[in-house]
Each structure stands twice: as structure tokens, then as C-alpha cells.
Amino acid sequence: MMRRMIISAPIIAVGLLAGNTFASDVGRTTSLPIPRFVSVKSKPANVRVGPGVSYPLKWTFVRRGLPVEIIAEFGNWRRIRDWGGEEGWIVGSLLSGNRTALVAPWSGANPVAIRSDAAENASTVAIVQSKVLVRVVGCDGKWCKVKAKGRRGYIRQTRLWGAYPGEVF
User: Fold this and answer.
1) What residues does the SH3b domain cover (predicted)?
2) Omega before residue 35 within 30° of 0, cis
3) In the chain, what's the furthest Cα-to-Cα distance?
């Protein structure tokens, strides 16, 4: 029995440090949904190996507005994931609740149409390349209303990294 308790203690400690990655669907600190999309508010914005300034830098965001996915919380630190799957910790004050998205970053050179309405047969307002940053005004679960370089229109939700499939906001 004692051996079982000793083995389980490190497992519990790892679970507590990881925050809400395993069982919960709301952040302990913010009570907001986990996971959720936010954007980088400041530049530069350092991403670290762990939740604190004593941890080494992993990378630095040099562009404001990029979407990231919060996957855990630990105090005022947020564990994030970028579109490429890289994970690290960033202080929450460097993030914003403003929603942005990257247009089909996985598709390489395939351009995506911004439509005048939320329909495939709607007229094309603009054509944007993969990885173009757009501001997301809202999504209905299938289409997202976006702003990009002075243009407004709709992009299919499945063509954006920064909104979950079926998410409505």
C-alpha cells in the first residue's frame, strides 16, 4: 500500500502542474473554457519552457495579433499551442481575447476566397493566400465573418486556424 502511494504522488504532482490539460474544461484561474483561442497582444512576446521567468525562452513572437490556443493555465501563465503544434508558456498579460485566425496555414499555396456572404455561391470579395492573418468578427458554426487588409467578408470556418469547427461566437 505504501509503495502504491509513493508512486502515485509524482503522478498527482505532474497533473497539478499541467493545469487543466487532462480533466477540466475551464481554467482554474480565469474560469474560461480550456482550450480556447486568443491572440498575441504584444510584440515581442516571449514563450518559455515552463510557467515562470526562471524558465528558459523557447521562442519569441515578433508579430502582434497571431492566434494561439490556450491549453492550460497556471497562475497568471498560459500554456499555448501555435498553428504548427509547438507548445510553451506565456504570461497572460501578453495575450488578448480578440479573435484572429490564420487562413488555411496547412494548405501551402492554395488560395482561399473571402465571400460577400456566408455561401459558396456568393461573390468573391478577395482571394487570400495561406497563412494570411485575418481578424475574426464572429462565426456561425460553418462560416466566419472576417476582416483582412480593409476587406470584409466570409470564409468557411474549416479554412481557418483560430476557430474551432462548429464554434459559434
Assistant:
1) 35-98, 101-164
2) yes
3) 69
113 forms beta bridges with 127
Residue 77's φ and ψ, nearest 5 degrees, are -105, 145
Whose grid coordinates read 456568393? Answer: 122
Q: Which amino acid is at 118?
A: A
Distance CA 70, CA 57 (A): 18
User: Does the pTM exceed 0.85?
Assistant: no
pLDDT digits (tens, 9 = 90+) for 40-73: 999 999 999 999 999 999 999 999 999 999 999 9
Q: HSE, CB side, 13 Å, CA atoms: give it for residue 2.
A: 0
The cell for 134 is: 485575418
Phi and psi of 128, rounded to 5°? -120, 150
